[in-house]
Amino acid sequence: MHLAVKLSTVIILVVATASNLVAIAQTTPTQPQSDPATREKNLQEARAKYNSVLSTEHINISEKIPINFPVPSYNSNVTSTSFVNSIKGAPTATAGIVTKDSPENVFKWYQDKLRNGGWSFRAAAPKLMDKIGKAGTLFMLEAKKEQQGVKVACLLDPRTRGTNVSVIWVKNRLGN
Amino acid sequence: MVSKRSKRGSVTAFSAVLALALLVLGIGFLFIVLYMGAQRETKNATDAGALNVGKKVLTDISVPLNGSANQACFKDCSSDSFDNNASRDSKITLERINRVWAKAMLIAINAEAADSDGQGGSGSGNASQAESGAQEISNALADKLTTPSNLHGFFSELAQVNSVRMIGVGSKTTVLPGGGWQTSLMDREAESNIQLTGTPSNNFYLPPGFTLPADASTQCTRTPMPSAVAGDYFLKGYVPIKVGSKTFWQVPFKWDNKPILVASSKFDAEKASANAVQWSKPVPNAFSVEGQALKAGAAGEKASSWVLSNPRKPFKLAAPHSFLHVKVDQPKCHWYFYPVPPFKVEFGAAQNYDFNSSPTSMSGTPMPGGGVLCSLVTPPSQTVGLDIAARSLDDVIFGLPNLHTSETKKIENYMVTRANEMISKPGVVITPAKLHTCLDNALTRLALIAGQKDFYVYSADGETLQCDIESVAQVKAITWMPGIIGNNPDGSEKKIIDDDYMPGGIPPVMPHAPTPLPFCSPTPLVNVSWLLWDKDVFWKPGSGYNGNLGEIRVKRWSEVHTVGICNPL
């Protein structure tokens, strides 16, 4: 099994090298910048390759969180957002938000919003976070409403002192 | 002419004759009264002796387990308590024999279900061993119960203390050996003292892949049916219960009936000699006795009585000393690249992460040529392990990703049905919610953080479900767990949940900048990296022959996928 995987990896690498060489050969050293039409064509081909990856992996990636995402999005001092959803099987999506605000404030905001939105939730106890050495840096909760499930994690970014937020949503929740 | 004297003489003579006649009649009447009283006293004493036989045969005639593996597996049935921690004496009585047959049947059911899933392993062979063990024990018990001399003492114990004064001073009712001591198989097709979990609509919480034959179970047959068991089902007595090619038996004991005296006609009609059952050596539940009251050196009264026994002690269909093993594999992070989209390759060694350090920032090995027209693709650092951070065992098994709904339900079903097999107390049902509550306890979170990877689901008291690490389970069930906890399931492992996955990074998508080949530049908006949570769950069934009812193995890992695409300038 491992041998087969390694063999396929080698084959892919050989093909990759070959295709890269062909691509380089097509670009003439004397003319480093293609004409606009060729450049556009090259970009389209590159994006097609990217889309083929996403399609094969059954995911969709976006920079923006859709407005119909079932959980409100934190919107204060946000520096970037990202969104991934599965395009196969049960609906699931993960929204990511990077903010300059502290994890405590962001987490409290989500607790309030979920409570007001009729979600029932339970937050991980600070003692438990302390056990894994994440007290004050990681805040997590699990919420449910009807058949939907949500997990919110607010993680301190030690570099910026801001917060990385992950909101995972599942439509057909399992379990108790 | 008759003189006055002569008249007076005839009256005297008449009176004397009359007095004599009355005396004779009186004495005769006295004898009849004494005779009838003696007969009644003898009958009462015999009935008392019979009832004592009906009571004592349940507990005082026993078969010791012989120590061989196929009998030792029934040691957990050698108790009259549903408490799994109660002491065991390695003796099987009439009260316990249905527990033995029921456990043997459960082992066969588990093996049959595993076979139907293609995971039988050595379960079927073990089930045959258990069946033969149960048969040996049952046969030995039947031999003892059908040997009248084994019952005589119980009869005498109570019959002799009953007064038979009318026979004579010092008279006692004693055993009258012979043909009056018989056994019968009464209440056929009535319920045994083994209660099933649930109802036919939920397959009695038996393992998926096995359906109990409809004629193997019955509701309480008492009329009117007691409301306490109105919705309950029991195994049926004196009916062959087929599981695959194996046959199992139960002795009927109507729910909560006391040992009672029965009519000889009914007793005789149900004797094996009058109305045979398919069971080659059935264990009887009814006994006839015969006693006699003797005056020293002279014949006295004889009486017979017929008793239907009943322990009035129901149990659940269970393998009391059993457990489920839950094993959590070491989580790993794998790094994937797309040199030739859409095909991915793993590059660099997988890295371990764990419950006590997650989530943690991880970096993969940069891959030369790891993207289109890229000389080097360096995956951005990712926060790995949010899927397992501070999670309970329930989260680890059933938590996200859980998009493979039917397979996840299958795992839940395996676990719920096995959990119910550990419960001995009638009326207790382990629902899916109860299982999740058990696996979700805070101690499992702490144990995972502490680095524990092996958990055991069991019932120490036969009533509630526990999930603990090995050392705790051994202490809580100290009388039996240490001897079996190291046993492996006898089935073979199969992956039930195969690569359940979902995006789970924090943040979920991270941009990066690949190093392009000469005369190329990174394509805008497509050079991203994302993280997936992945999960496999394996099931290895155990028949319960050695106490192990199965093993759940959970494999969790993360995959960081990095797309690097450049395009010619």
Total domain count of chain A: 2
Mean model confidence by pLDDT of chain B:
93
Query: What is the first-to-last residue Cα distance of chain A?
Result: 38 Å
Indicate the structural class of chain B: alpha+beta
Spans where pLDDT lies below 50 across 5 or more residues of chain B = none
> Which residues of chain A form runs of ≥5 with pLDDT under 50?
27-31
The helix count of chain A comes to 4
**How many individual β-strands of chain B?**
30
Content of β-strand of chain B: 25-35%
The chain-level structural class of chain A is alpha+beta
Main sheet strand line-up of chain A? 1-2-3-7-6-5-4
Largest sheet of chain A: 7 strands, antiparallel
Beta-strand segment tally of chain A = 7
**Oligomer designation:** heterodimer
Shape of chain B: rod-shaped
Distance between the termini of chain B: 174 Å
Radius of gyration of chain B: 37 Å
Helical segment tally of chain B?
A: 12
- The percentage helix of chain B is 25-40%
Helix content of chain A: 25-40%
Compute the gyration radius of chain A: what is it?
A: 22 Å
Walkthrough of the structure:
The complex is a heterodimer of chains A (176) and B (569). In chain A, 38% of the residues lie in helices and 28% in strands. Chain A is α+β, with helices and mostly antiparallel strands and 176 residues long. Chain B is an alpha+beta fold. Helix content of chain B is 30%, strand content 25%. Chain B contains 12 helices and 30 strands. The longest helix of chain B is centred in the N-terminal third of the chain and has 56 residues, at 4-59. Chain B is rod-shaped, with a radius of gyration of 37 Å. Chain B starts with a helix and ends with a strand. The mean pLDDT of chain B is 93. Chains A and B meet through helix 1, helix 2, strand 2, strand 3 and helix 4 of A and strand 15, strand 16, helix 8, helix 9 and helix 10 of B.
Quick overview of this protein structure:
The complex is a heterodimer of chains A (176) and B (569). Chain A is an alpha+beta fold. Helices cover 38% and strands 28% of the residues of chain A.
